[in-house]
């Protein structure tokens, strides 16, 4: 077994030990389980594998052929994955995995397994926990149009790319019941989804009545995350006050606040201005959603969350400066998480200026891709160092015909890009293959961190005994060209068209069943289960709880002030209370005079008078008695 | 003016080349050329030896004496009317008889060559002719030894060996600094709060300003929501004309925003000489504006060429925090900083700058009170934003630890918005940023409410009127904390206390510079003088001074405004109520707008020219982008929301709207596949 373990590492190199010396490929970290023995693996390249490196060439290429024959194996629930290197977020080691009834039953060498078990050969590959895509919108309609990839097509594509679980956003119509939307989504997903799924709830219009629904969702329905919009003015947007209120509730419920961070007010104004300028194409979208606007909202969201002592999760980090704000806030101790998406990690926003309208429109999403071409690299770096934690896809696809609804007005283009299928491959290509990140970190950002944040861990996000058998056998060396012609989606355009990526799933196992093998997808519509999530994920809430204990403010005990008090004429704090401040519309008509509140003052005949501004000093100045009458008012 | 500068250079060449040693004095920079700034440093050591020793002698001996005198005068100096004021002037002249004068202030000698003629001239209301001799003229760009001749309220000559008429009053300043009078950009001398006005009105406030070396103030006109801006402006102007003792100008605060305001703004900018307007991001439900409104205000003011000033705090969150703090049972002044945490200031500054960048408009942040807010401004400037920051006397000299004082009156005296940061390192940090130019202007935000007025909020900190003193102490503290500690040189001191303000608000070079043709607002500054701040000796009518007991190095010896000597140390103030003039300011100040104008020319946005999209278009049912054109989604709709309105006119298929079952996919019917191969070159994938 010890020999076998060593084989896969060199299978790719065809035994050419020398060629390896010059390559810049990252050395996979090999831990044999001990805390301090990770150097051991380093020997293998030099000595032991010299002979063995020739033999496994067959091993690595063969499984694709051999696995095609027992397709009936997908029906059996018992599997053994042999010879792969298991990569979790904390360590990598060589072991076999025995799967039964959709869960991982045994991990180790020389496993005792019943007969008739299907064997999956993973020599030369790494075995990783299936990816978790925390941000998809497979059911959210825009302008009455449903996305072209629904739960069935979307999850199929997810599995094809090595993602075995998605968390989809439930977007109720503003004013509609959250529970109603939740039931609707769950119903559709139960019928359509091919992989396990869970749901985020989006709060599209806040009012106090939602509290009960939120409580019920958290306590009974297994939803522990709520998305709040800072953009989409007059539709979904929430004011700062509302966000503060919601954050307080979300914290008390033990859930996670997610925000779509963009300043909707500014965007709205810029959209108007650009349309006035006569810019109607997709480039208008990126011009009116400038990076700063995203950054500003991220900053504000973090400030509000800090005040409310609520954990914050920023969806779709698309620009360098927004990512920087998150990184800085984390350095100040904020409990905040950032999620770059496939599109922002894999491409940039220069395509908005494409002469091809259909192509330019395909990139339209909010926040938009940054036109700065160094953005993907930068985000991958932050992802590698832990300043950003989770990758998602933000998948929401609309066909070209649907996008063409906005052909004369970019604000009508339905927003969303693909990425559910390409996510793992792009992170591997951009971060692992370039040496920014190791395999363990790769597992962390594609799966484990998401599982921890949303309280799915260790059921998901880890290869361990007792965990769900969502397993991906990943071939780091395979290269593939992304194209709309070959992807599992229904959209005609893939925004990563033509991009060559290293790393691809060879076998994907979801719920203990092989769903991808030998390039063939074998999915069952509706086989996905809803995975409920409990409140108070430890990964987040341990700190929050400790802080709320600490943060009690205390007043200063003083005697009562007994000095002279100026006589206030009308005690209303200020002129008439407008319903909300970030909200109120311009009065439009003539300004209103300050109303006199006759009930609040004891001296009702006077209000603010026109001559209030003229000082009446002689009458107003009240000098404290000489020497001071009390110890409270005397100046020390 | 460039002529005269060249002249100075010629005249000063001699001492520069003669002197040659090094000095540690930070404030003697004398830059003749671009790269010769070190030369000037020598002067303090060699040529001026005598002058300096004389000056030092002067301060050391009569300190206690002069303070007593000052006390006497302040006690007698609380005249309420103009007649009393003139009385005081008589007292002043009495004191300045030659015999006593020498005792009082040997450092600065005032000669009256022609007997009492000057005094008579002064009494007739004519400005006197003054020759300031032997001083070191410090502007923001260079320092030099020169005499200054003043006539008719203007500076007529600057240089050595001036030819002046005989009957000229001569001020021998013996090496003290001659600096342009300070400009205090942020005062609220008439801002009503809950119907009560500050105890320092234009008269007392401007008196205090002059006593501290500030010769011009820019006050905030603060109309209440719903009031007419023009009426408020006239009210302020009228009051200031009657009372103000120094030149003044006005900012107008926008309490509300609607299209009707635009006309008033246009009048104010084009006819009334106002080029700066303050908007509030705080004070929820009264002054606060939404981001959309800010965007509109910024866009409009940019067209007018005005400077946008911001009170930057997140009002929504403050309202929430206030509620929370009150619900915890905290009602004392410590609730104020607890409900106005530093982050909310920094957040609002960040947002304001973002909006400013989008609109491409200069942004001026009033009252920078915390390190994080200042850092935000710094970073924005690094990225090229046109943004200015104004720390105030209070934030530069003290910190917010006093909010927790056991003495309610003391704690309440510090209440201002944004509050002083409880972090005791804040003043140092702000001075560092001032010294390096990341912050540009020092204001005072002087808004004085007496203890009994503050006591309105004795049971609820949210009712405490907001405002601290600082108009008199402003220059002194910047000198003490920045120049005397070596953070800043004297030129930068002039820049932050006077010149930068004049530039940003388009008063330059009339104000903020000692040059031929500028207004004769001149301060003779003694760097070695020390003074202990106390409410007993201050000009303000407040019974509490937040800087109580602090010792301050540096202070004005003589203050000249409009060509008249209004303050001489040891003789008190001789001000004339209502002598201040309103200084109109033109729009489009170069200092703020040159970059903006260029950027708007360069930054024009262009679309991509494409052929018409001719592919298939999905058939959208009649749903406009924003389903409900409700007034604003940001207001929290506590009641039931109205269903989305169906606009029957916008669609040709009017019977369908957003339906309940829109969310249920009808994929088979909806999907429109592009024709294979693509019908046109526009839609196929290139």
Automatic annotation (TrEMBL), chain A:
Cell compartments where the protein resides: Cytoplasm
A Gene Ontology molecular function term of the record: hydrolase activity, acting on carbon-nitrogen (but not peptide) bonds, in cyclic amides
Compositionally biased tracts (Basic and acidic residues): 1-10
Q: Which InterPro entries match?
A: Amidohydro-rel, Hydantoinase/dihydroPyrase, Metal-dep_hydrolase_composite, Metal_Hydrolase, Metallo-dep_Hydrolases_sf
Q: Name one GO cellular component term.
A: cytosol
Q: Which SUPFAM superfamilies match?
A: Composite domain of metallo-dependent hydrolases, Metallo-dependent hydrolases
- State where composition is biased (Low complexity): 52-77
Q: Which Pfam families does the entry link to?
A: Amidohydro_1
**The Amidohydrolase-related domain covers which part of the protein?**
126-515
What CDD domains does this protein's entry cite?
D-HYD (cd01314)
Keywords recorded for this protein, A-Z:
Cytoplasm
- Give me the ranges of the annotated region Disordered: 1-30, 49-77, 574-617
Give the family from UniProt: Belongs to the metallo-dependent hydrolases superfamily. Hydantoinase/dihydropyrimidinase family.
Q: Which PANTHER family does the record match to this protein?
A: DIHYDROPYRIMIDINASE-RELATED PROTEIN 4, HYDRANTOINASE/DIHYDROPYRIMIDINASE FAMILY MEMBER
* Protein name, per record: Dihydropyrimidinase like 4
Q: Which organism is it from?
A: Oncorhynchus mykiss (Rainbow trout)
TrEMBL record, chain B:
Pinpoint the Amidohydrolase-related domain residues.
201-566
Top-level taxon in the UniProt lineage:
Eukaryota
Q: Name one GO molecular function term.
A: hydrolase activity, acting on carbon-nitrogen (but not peptide) bonds, in cyclic amides
Give the CC-aspect GO terms: cytosol
**Quick one: where's region Disordered?**
52-103, 628-686
Q: Which Pfam families match?
A: Amidohydro_1
Q: Where is the composition biased (Polar residues)?
A: 648-657
Q: Which family does it belong to?
A: Belongs to the metallo-dependent hydrolases superfamily. Hydantoinase/dihydropyrimidinase family.
Protein name per UniProt? Collapsin response mediator protein 1
Which species expresses this protein natively?
Oncorhynchus mykiss
Species lineage: Eukaryota, Metazoa, Chordata, Craniata, Vertebrata
């Amino acid at each position: 077994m010890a020999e076998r373990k060593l084989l896969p590492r060199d299978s790719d190199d065809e035994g050419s030990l020398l060629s390896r010396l010059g390559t810049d490929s990252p050395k996979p970290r090999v831990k044999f389980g001990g805390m301090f023995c990770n150097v051991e693996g380093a020997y293998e390249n030099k000595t032991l594998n010299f002979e063995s490196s020739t033999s496994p060439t067959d091993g690595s290429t063969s499984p694709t052929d051999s696995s095609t024959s027992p397709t009936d194996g997908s029906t059996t629930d018992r599997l053994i994955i042999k010879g792969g290197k298991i990569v979790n977020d904390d360590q990598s080691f060589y072991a076999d995995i025995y799967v039964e009834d959709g869960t991982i039953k045994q991990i180790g060498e020389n496993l005792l397994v019943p007969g008739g078990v299907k064997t999956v050969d993973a020599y030369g590959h790494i075995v990783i926990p299936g990816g978790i895509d925390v941000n998809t919108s497979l059911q959210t309609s825009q302008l009455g149009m449903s996305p072209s990839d629904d739960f069935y097509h979307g999850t199929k594509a997810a599995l094809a790319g090595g993602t075995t679980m998605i968390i989809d956003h439930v977007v109720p119509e503003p004013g509609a019941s959250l529970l109603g939307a939740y039931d609707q989504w769950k119903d559709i997903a139960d019928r359509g989804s091919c992989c396990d799924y869970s749901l985020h709830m989006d709060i599209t219009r806040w009012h106090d009545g939602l509290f009960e629904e939120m409580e019920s969702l958290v306590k009974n329905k297994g939803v522990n995350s709520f998305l709040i919009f800072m953009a989409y003015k007059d539709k979904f947007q929430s004011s700062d006050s509302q966000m503060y209120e919601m954050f307080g509730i979300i914290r008390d419920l033990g859930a996670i606040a997610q925000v779509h961070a963009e300043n909707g007010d500014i965007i709205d104004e810029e959209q108007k201005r650009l349309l006035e300028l006569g810019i109607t194409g997709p480039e208008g979208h990126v011009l009116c959603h400038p990076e700063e606007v995203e950054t500003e909202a991220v900053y504000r969201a973090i400030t509000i969350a800090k005040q409310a002592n609520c954990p914050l999760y920023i969806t779709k980090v698309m620009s360098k400066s927004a990512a920087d704000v998150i990184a800085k806030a984390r350095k100040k101790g904020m409990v905040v998480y950032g999620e770059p998406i496939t599109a922002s990690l894999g491409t940039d926003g220069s395509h908005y200026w494409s002469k091809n309208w259909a192509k330019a429109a395909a990139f339209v999403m909010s926040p938009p891709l940054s036109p700065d071409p160094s953005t993907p690299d930068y985000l991958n770096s932050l992802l590698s160092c832990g300043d950003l934690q989770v990758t998602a896809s933000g998948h929401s696809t609309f066909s070209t015909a649907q996008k063409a609804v906005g052909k004369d007005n970019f604000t009508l283009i339905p927003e969303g890009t693909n990425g559910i299928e390409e996510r793992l491959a792009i992170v591997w290509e951009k971060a692992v293959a370039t040496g920014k990140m190791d395999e363990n970190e790769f597992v962390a950002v594609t799966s484990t961190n998401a599982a921890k944040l949303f309280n799915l861990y260790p059921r998901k996000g880890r290869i361990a005994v007792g965990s769900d058998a969502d397993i991906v056998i990943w071939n780091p060396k395979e290269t593939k060209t992304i194209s709309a012609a070959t992807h599992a989606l229904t959209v005609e355009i893939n925004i990563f068209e033509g991009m060559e990526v290293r790393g691809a799933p060879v076998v994907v196992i979801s719920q203990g069943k092989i769903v991808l093998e030998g390039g063939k997808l074998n999915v069952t519509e509706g086989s996905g289960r809803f995975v409920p999530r409990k409140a108070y994920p430890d990964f987040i809430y341990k700190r929050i709880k400790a802080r709320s204990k600490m943060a009690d403010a205390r007043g200063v005990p003083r005697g009562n002030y007994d000095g002279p008090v100026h006589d206030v004429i009308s005690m209303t704090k200020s002129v008439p209370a407008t319903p909300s401040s970030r909200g109120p519309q311009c009065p439009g008509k003539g300004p209103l005079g300050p109303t006199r509140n006759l009930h609040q003052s004891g001296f009702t005949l006077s209000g603010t008078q026109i001559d209030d501004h003229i000082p009446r000093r002689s009458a107003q100045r009240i000098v404290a008695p000489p020497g001071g009458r009390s110890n409270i008012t005397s100046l020390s | 003016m460039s002529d005269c500068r060249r002249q100075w250079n010629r005249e000063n060449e001699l001492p520069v080349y003669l002197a040659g040693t090094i000095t540690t004095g930070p404030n003697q920079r004398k830059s003749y050329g671009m790269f010769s700034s070190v030369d000037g440093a020598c002067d303090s050591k060699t040529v001026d030896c005598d002058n300096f020793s004389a000056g030092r002698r002067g301060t050391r001996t009569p300190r206690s004496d002069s303070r007593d005198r000052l006390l006497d005068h302040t006690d007698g100096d609380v005249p309420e009317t103009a007649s009393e004021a003139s009385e005081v002037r008589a007292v002043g002249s009495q004191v300045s008889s030659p015999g006593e004068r020498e005792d009082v202030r040997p450092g600065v000698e005032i000669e009256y060559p022609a007997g009492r003629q000057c005094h008579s001239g002064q009494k007739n209301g004519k400005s006197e002719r003054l020759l300031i001799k032997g001083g070191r003229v410090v502007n923001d760009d260079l320092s030099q030894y020169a005499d200054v001749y003043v006539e008719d309220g203007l500076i007529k000559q600057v240089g050595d060996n001036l030819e002046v008429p005989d009957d000229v009053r001569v001020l021998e300043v013996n090496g003290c600094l001659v600096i342009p009078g300070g400009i205090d950009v942020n005062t609220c001398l008439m801002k009503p709060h809950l119907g009560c006005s500050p105890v320092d009105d234009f008269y007392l406030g401007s008196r205090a300003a002059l006593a501290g070396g500030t010769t011009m103030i820019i006050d905030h006109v603060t109309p209440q929501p719903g009031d007419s801006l023009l009426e408020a402006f006239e009210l302020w102007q009228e009051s200031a004309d009657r009372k103000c003792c120094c030149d003044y100008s006005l900012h107008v605060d926008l309490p509300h925003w609607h299209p009707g305001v635009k006309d008033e703004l246009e009048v104010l900018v084009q006819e009334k000489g106002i080029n700066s307007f303050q908007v509030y991001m705080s004070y929820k439900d009264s002054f606060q504006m939404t981001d959309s409104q800010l965007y509109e205000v910024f866009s409009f003011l940019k067209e007018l060429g005005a400077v946008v000033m911001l009170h930057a705090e997140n009002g929504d969150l403050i309202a929430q925090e206030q509620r929370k703090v009150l619900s915890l049972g905290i009602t004392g002044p410590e609730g104020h900083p607890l409900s106005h945490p530093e982050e909310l200031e920094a957040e609002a500054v960040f947002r304001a700058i973002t909006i400013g960048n989008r609109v491409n408009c200069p942004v001026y942040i009033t009252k920078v009170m915390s390190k994080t807010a200042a850092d935000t401004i710094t970073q924005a400037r690094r990225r090229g934003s046109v943004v200015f920051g104004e720390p105030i006397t209070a934030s530069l000299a003290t910190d917010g630890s006093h909010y927790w004082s056991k003495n309610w009156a003391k704690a309440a005296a510090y209440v201002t918005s944004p509050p002083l940061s409880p972090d005791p390192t804040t003043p140092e940090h702000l001075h560092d940023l001032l010294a390096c130019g990341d912050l540009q202007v020092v204001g005072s935000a002087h808004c004085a409410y007496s203890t009994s007025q503050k006591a309105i909020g004795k049971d609820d900190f949210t009712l405490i009127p907001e405002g601290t003193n600082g108009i008199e102490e402003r220059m002194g503290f910047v000198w003490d904390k920045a120049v005397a500690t070596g953070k800043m040189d004297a030129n930068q001191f002039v820049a932050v206390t006077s010149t930068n303000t004049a530039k940003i608000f388009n008063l330059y070079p009339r104000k903020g510079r000692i040059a031929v043709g500028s207004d004769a607002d001149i301060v003779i500054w003694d760097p070695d003088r020390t003074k202990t701040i106390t409410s007993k000796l201050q000009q303000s009518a407040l019974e509490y001074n937040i800087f109580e007991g602090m010792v301050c190095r540096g202070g004005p010896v003589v203050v000249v405004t409009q060509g008249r000597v209004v303050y001489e140390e040891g003789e008190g103030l001789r001000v004339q109520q209502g002598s201040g003039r309103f200084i109109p300011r033109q729009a489009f100040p170069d200092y703020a707008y040159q970059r903006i104008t260029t950027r708007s020319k360069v930054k024009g946005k262009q679309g991509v020219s494409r052929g018409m999209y001719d592919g298939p278009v999905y058939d959208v049912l009649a749903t406009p982008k924003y389903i409900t054109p409700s007034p604003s989604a940001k207001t929290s709709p506590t009641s039931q929301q109205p269903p989305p309105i169906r606009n029957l006119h916008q669609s040709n298929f009017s019977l369908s709207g957003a339906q309940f079952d829109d969310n249920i996919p009808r994929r088979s019917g909806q999907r429109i596949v592009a024709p294979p191969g693509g019908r046109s070159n526009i839609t196929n994938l290139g």
